[in-house]
Amino acid sequence: MKLSAALFLILAAAPVAPVCGTGHCEGTLMNSTTTQLDFFAATLDVNTLHEIGGELRYGMIGQVENEDVDLRVIALPNPSWPYPNIADTWAGRDPPRIPNETNGLDGKFGLINMQSSNNTNFIPDSGLGNFRFCIVAAGTNNEVTPAEFQFTVYDFDKRGSAGNNNKKRGLEERMFMNVAQAHSYQVWPNVANSEIDMLCEDPSVAYPCPAGMRTVFHSSTVGGPSDNPSDPNSLEAHQKKRSVAFTFQNRACFDLSFEIYCPVDVFPNNYPDNPKPNICRKEAVGGGNFLFAGKCDSMIHDGLCITAAPQAATLSPTDLPSAAPSDSPSDSPFDSPSDSPSVNPSDSPVDSPTSSPSDSPFDSPVDSPVEPPEDDQTCGVGDPDPGNQGTLNLCLRTSLGYSFGNPVNFQEVNFIETLIRVDYDLSAGFCVDAFSVAPKDRELLTVSESYSDALLAYLCIASQHPEYQPSLHMENVTLSDGSTDSRPYPLTDYNDPNNINSPGTKKFNQGALINVCVKVKDEYIVEGVVLNGITSFSWLRTGESTYDQDVSGNRQGDDTINQAAIVSGAPSTNFLTSYVNLNCVDETNCDFASVLYAQFYNTDGTVTGEGDANLKFARRRLGEDDETDGRRLQEDPGTSAMDISIGVVAPTNDFGTLKTAGGFSPAATAFATVVAIVGAAGILA
């Protein structure tokens, strides 16, 4: 490992704010006047957006100058399809959607449901909603203007194609906004590698859009419920790529439009085979959720900040220059300054400089701009023109880190930043009015480490299995650091036959009790990573041979069965999973057991399972004693996903017997006994 230091110089053109931040979008300064919108702590006081004249009101969502405020959302006019029409669409779904449970809050997020009528039932703009978000005094409609707040939109994705030769198109998502409303906005990690396409509302105009034209943030990548975010401040890389964060300053309200639509219906000329086979997957109505929250800590640290609404060309004169400063210095530095200025800065030049340069930098940074000397320093003739005055802000960043072999793999560990501000007047010639240097305190994480693949799920016989005996089913494994980890043996007989490492020879029958172990991988155990509870897990079967039945209230598509096993850290309310959350906290492994619905066994095939779990560190990590100086090198690792695949066979005639991976045992747990009774009664069929 080679220790390295890197130096970065960042420029910003006036009147943009300094580019050094304090833990959020580089391009703005976070301070005590910033209002934090906290949807997790907010209350859903009003949920009538689906009614004419209705609203969504998130109560007590934050404070402005120590006064509580609400976030109020209303639907703006849409002549062709007003948003309240969605109530009729919800009522026509199978099963019908409950309005008060469809919009509002989803954990730490706010959400607005959208429904698009497609194909032969196509209704223009049916999947479009025009909305206004306003900060208002608590319990009133009186607008309150914060000095600054942030608003982040998540999960821009589209549905996958399907059908003959994949010609059935999936629904897509897009958001329209006049970005001039925002002080800045941010994508991750940059425009080129984000999974959000940024376009202009007029497709003949290239991004960045001219003044007065809305920017379109468009989905580019197929996604689904399994990759949706659960915590706005703990995002995986693909979730950050599908998010955009806005910073608003001195503004109470902003407008945007969000649409879920079938591209075949909206852009028919792009699909010459319309209406068939180029139709959307959902034959009548399809929908999704517009997901949003406030400040996004996990995205803003290293994403690209686009400041002051970049302009490709102006439709009318503006106060700002149309072009942003270059991102890098010239190809090579000048050998020396020019011989003389092209325009004399004063009527007659002075004989000598008013002062000589200092031999060394300031001993300490100054707190305020240095007053210019009063000697002959006239910058131009007559009164200065305010339109030609401005400020140049520079951020000098020195970075300390290391690289393994290739310097391209540089990993930053710590840094220090210094703000430099230059005030200038270009009324005639050029002069420096003031110059100041100040160190900038920062509080953010400077080491990022991914734990998205830290978990492994496998079949086992463990605590949720009726035949479990620790002496027979547990093994002790010596890890690379010499420690020992105790975990259940893998049960490989029932693995997916297509598993190249350990193909199974047996398959589960209808009514079988399926015991799944979830463990932290060995390489992460030695780092001190342990489980902090399984948050979600679902069983799925996909294929043309499955029946079109939604067995869990969470339809995945016409050819997919989905059965929830663990929801929000607890067993599903379908009573077909046994899981104890406390057994999965501060442990390197734990288990749960499920019985699948009979629909999973219609034909021989493969069932998959996928889920997520929270992780934590079992011991103190480097930096936990260093919080007093505003820095910390690493926090808990967040969440990780896991998946499993098993084989199943169609039912035989021995119905009514509880089957487990090891056969029936009279020592079954209460859960297993109940499932056996249910199976014998024929309810699972």
Outline:
By secondary structure, the chain is mainly β. The chain folds into 3 domains: 1-16 and 386-448, no CATH class; 78-130 and 150-307, no CATH class; 455-680, no CATH class.
What would you note in describing this structure?
- By secondary structure, the protein is mostly beta strands.
- It folds into three domains: 1-16 and 386-448, no CATH class; 78-130 and 150-307, no CATH class; 455-680, no CATH class.
- Helix content is 6%, strand content 34%.
- The strands form six sheets. Strands 2, 6, 7, 9, 11, 14, 16 and 17 form an eight-stranded mixed β-sheet that branches. It has an eight-stranded antiparallel β-sheet with strand order 3-4-5-8-15-10-13-12.
- It is globular, with a radius of gyration of 30 Å.
- It starts with a strand and ends in a 5-residue tail after the last helix.
- The model is unreliable at 1-30, 309-382, 428-435, 442-448, 620-634, 654-668 and 678-685 (pLDDT under 50).
